[in-house]
Amino acid sequence: MKVTRLFALVLVMAVGAQNADARPRPRNMGSGMKDFEANKTIGVGLELGYHDGLTLKYFLNESNALDFGLGWSYGHYYGGDGLSLYGDYLWHPFVLASADPFELPFYVGVGAHFWDFDYCRGRGDCGYGGSAFGVRVPIGLAFDFNNVPLDIFIQIVPTLDFFRRYDRDIYLGFWPSVGIRFWFN
Length: 185
What we know:
It is a single chain. This protein is mainly beta. The protein has helices spanning 2-17, 76-79; strands at 42-49, 52-59, 64-75, 80-98, 102-119, 128-136, 139-145, 150-164, 170-184. Strands 1, 2, 3, 4, 5, 6, 7, 8 and 9 form a nine-stranded antiparallel beta sheet that branches. The longest helix has 16 residues, at 2-17. The protein is elongated and about 55 Å long.
């Protein structure tokens, strides 16, 4: 069911993107690594993985952005499902690949997240509430299209969680996710 909804959302975004344009990027005539220069401002989309939910990214300038997420996490930490919120500051220091239709910028960031969840202590002993606050370090790649206002991203996010009302105090996790965004200029 989730895959069908994601496919429908991607199809709607792709059809809508045919009528929208992204701003052109300046051409880099030098040699070596190319700096990333965003040609979009605000992107809204869907993220799957660490949590399933919505994502919003806002470029502050050509290479720095704020990234936010709101979603639902499934089955982490002994069956704990719950609401997940995050906010990150991202740097896009360079582009790994550049072509006429797209750029592939690398990004890294730092941020925080909050997670409110229910968990089980053992078989059949469920319904306990808990929460965690964490520090995040997203590391990823964005397949950033030049001619349509879409991007697709993949990332791994090392996270150090500090728990309240749970059987552990601190946990280090590595959470992958993928997503797609539609961009508004």
